[in-house]
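lol ok so funny story. i was supposed to be doing the assay writeup but got distracted and ended up predicting the structure for this chain instead. priorities right. anyway since i did it might as well share w the group, maybe its usefull for someone
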Amino acid sequence: MATTGDWITPWFTPELPFWGKPPLSFWTEAIAFKLLGTNEFAVRLPSWLATLGSMGLIFAYARSYFGPQVATWSLLIYASCALVFIAAGAVLTDPFLALATTWAMVALAMAAHSPRWYWRYGFFVAMAIGLLAKGPLIGVLVAGPLLPLLVFYPTLRASFLKMPWFSGTALMLLLSVPWYVMAELKTPGFLNYFLVGEHFLRFIDSGWAGDLYGVAHKRMKGAIWLEVLTASFPWGLLALAMLLRHLFKPAQRALLWQKRQDPNLAYLLAWALFTPAFFTLSGNILWTYVLPALASFSVLMALALSPEKTAKPWQRSGQLLLTTLVPLGVTAYMVVGAFQPELLKTEKYLVSHAMTQMKPGDKLVYLDDVPFSATFYTRGQTGVITLNQLTDPSALYLAMQKKDWAVVSGKFTPPLPQLFESREHILTVIPPATSAPKATQQP
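and the output, tada:
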């Protein structure tokens, strides 16, 4: 997008349009490239800003409804959940969906508490952001928890009906629909693939063969709840332990049942549970699908662990220690990875090593398939090659998956050297004199 100037259709390759996601995250990343240059910081910055936006909304909501201490702990818990911490620095569309979902749910709640125009219309702006970040899924993730709440909680229903639905919906459509129309006109077939394939077939068929851009993430049904524990680590495990402890004590169980009458707690609980419940019957999932639920989960955990209710100093220290587990763990992993790059799922260090070895006229290619990170770190200057195409007048730096090494190296005399290993690939060099493999002699 940054190099071609095509701001309508994202492209998977120069020949293949990317119909899998709307362009909001790609717009922000391309703009960051334009402003800050093509570098890692620029492409990761939008996810970080989207995460900060979610945190600001969480704080405003929690402070308004539950006070500043709960608001502060909500931020500490949210920021130290494993998925939030990692996604904030990753090139993903999910932080933008989380921002949209958080904004919509917070705006609706804040409009009931303080019906100012920026909360009332902010709900519809958030829905438009969701439509441009992930698509109609935003409607499911927002309407899903709201429907039972509107049925069982009259106070929520009354405030819901006071929203500017006609003018707000018009604003939402004005902000989002034009791109959908332009995208279909530019590359016909987009709407069918995106609306039917990505929003229906992907979730009912765990081995969906229609995916144009990769492979289906086949998992057993119900696996999303295991991903909840991973995504919310370490707080999800603590929440599960606390819940089980309360369920086995009659008095505590009765107290939990009483709390269902509080519409504010019911709002948070429905918001937190709907997303994993929605994906329970899907066998095609990723752990990032949990991200929209972690905002409300963090507020619930802050309420359960509020310092006002924790009298013992060691308990407060334990809570603070939990906030450091994921940041310290990820930092330690990256430090180790700097010395042992084969632990990291990136081609950054392999590409860097190849660039230091290459002379003018040399080429770096990948056997059969080029990873995304290799495309980025070579600035699009790497390519793909098959085994029988390994002929070139200059030296050829070749990266291949580790499983292919024995087969490929055995086709050359003398044996090829191993110059570098990443987590998934081995780098070698084929000198000009030996660039034609023995495989070319076979029929």
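Residues 435-443 have pLDDT under 50 and may be disordered. Strands lie at 363-367, 383-385, 396-401, 420-421, 425-430.
back to the writeup now i swear
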